[in-house]
């Protein structure tokens, strides 16, 4: 998979892409990342990528032209343009699974300021995704979340670490509680069932725990 990040702050993702799982995914050849800075597609000496909003109001809006040229510079028939914004569809595990399996080339458009000129979205964006109902300073942070949740699902990337089939949201439930050594921690012990070796009983206990937590913390996940 190829992931192109369109952002005026390419350095913001450097550390994240050079560490841990993402670095390993690149080393394995499962994914390649590249950046496009819209400033490279400006025509004025100040390399202007934003301007005041028509109709007045606070803040600035990203100009359509540099973004359009940036997208065109990498867009192919296999590309899917995703704009990260609070107006997007909520990002979910199933969306991550879809992106991980169905996409050859993701172009992640990272907004800044008050957002992007609507005409750019109309003409170039295939899908708008929101990572949550709050406002970030920059879409690159949201792109990082989408990249992480998606790339880890590319077959082979996770290797031995954690089977994705049985994890949160994939089962429709929150995860069961996890324990590891020491057997006693500050007076707290590990539930005996987990030390029983009876895998049938352990699986039943874990499912009951997951169900109970989901009922208490996220009953919305149980609707339907
Ligand atoms: C956001 C979100 C988000 C809005 C203004 C960047 C900011 C600034 N993106 N999910 N929530 N974006 O807050 O995806 O341009």
What is the share of helical residues?
A: 25-40%
Per DSSP, the total helix count is 7
Determine the strand fraction and express it as a percent band: 15-25%
Rg for CA atoms: 22 Å
Low-confidence stretches: none
In the residues, how many domains can be counted? 2
Structural class computed from helices and strand pairing: alpha/beta
Oligomer description: single chain
CATH topology annotation of the largest domain: Alpha/beta knot
What is the overall pLDDT average? 94
Largest sheet: 5 strands, parallel
DSSP strand count: 9
CATH class annotation of the largest domain: Alpha Beta
CATH architecture of the largest domain: 3-Layer(aba) Sandwich
Bound molecules: ligand 4FV
Write out the CATH superfamily name of the largest domain.
SPOUT methyltransferase, trefoil knot domain
N- to C-terminal separation? 34 Å
Strand neighbour order, sheet with most strands: 2-1-6-5-7
* Tertiary shape: elongated
Succession of helices and strands: EHHEEEHEHEHEHEEH
Give me a quick take on this structure.
By secondary structure, the protein is an alpha/beta fold. It is 31% helix and 18% strand.
What can you see in these coordinates?
The protein is of the alpha/beta class and 224 residues long. It folds into two domains: 2-151, Alpha/beta knot; 166-224, Trp Operon Repressor, Chain A (Orthogonal Bundle). It has seven helices and nine strands; from the N terminus they run βααβββαβαβαβαββα. It has helices at residues 14-17, 20-27, 64-72, 93-102, 118-124, 139-151, 199-217, and strands at residues 2-6, 32-36, 50-51, 61-62, 79-90, 105-110, 127-130, 184-185, 188-189. The strands form three sheets. It has a five-stranded parallel β-sheet with strand order 2-1-6-5-7, with helices on both faces. The chain is elongated. 24% of the residues are buried. The mean pLDDT is 94. Bound molecules: ligand 4FV. Ligand 4FV binds at residues 84-86, 111-113, 115, 130-132, 134-136, 138-139, 142.
């Amino acid at each position: 998979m190829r992931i192109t990040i369109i952002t005026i702050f390419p350095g913001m993702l450097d550390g994240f892409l050079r560490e841990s799982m993402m670095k390993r995914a690149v080393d394995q050849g499962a994914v390649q990342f590249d950046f496009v800075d819209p400033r490279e597609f400006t025509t004025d000496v100040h390399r202007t990528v934003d301007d005041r909003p028509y109709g007045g109001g606070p803040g600035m809006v990203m100009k359509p032209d540099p973004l359009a040229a940036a997208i065109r510079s990498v867009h192919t028939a296999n590309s899917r343009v995703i704009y990260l914004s609070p107006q997007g569809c909520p990002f979910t595990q199933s969306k991550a699974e879809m992106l991980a399996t169905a996409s050859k080339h993701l172009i992640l458009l990272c907004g800044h300021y008050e957002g992007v000129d609507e005409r750019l979205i109309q003409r170039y964006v295939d899908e708008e995704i929101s990572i949550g109902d709050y406002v970030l300073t920059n879409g690159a942070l949201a792109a990082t979340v989408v990249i992480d949740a998606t790339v880890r699902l590319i077959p082979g990337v996770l290797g031995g670490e954690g089977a994705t089939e049985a994890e949160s949201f994939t089962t429709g439930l929150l995860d069961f509680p996890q324990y590891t050594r020491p057997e006693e921690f500050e007076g707290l012990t590990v539930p005996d069932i987990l030390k029983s070796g009876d895998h049938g009983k352990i699986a039943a206990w874990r499912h009951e725990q997951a169900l109970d937590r989901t009922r208490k913390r996220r009953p919305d996940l149980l609707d339907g």
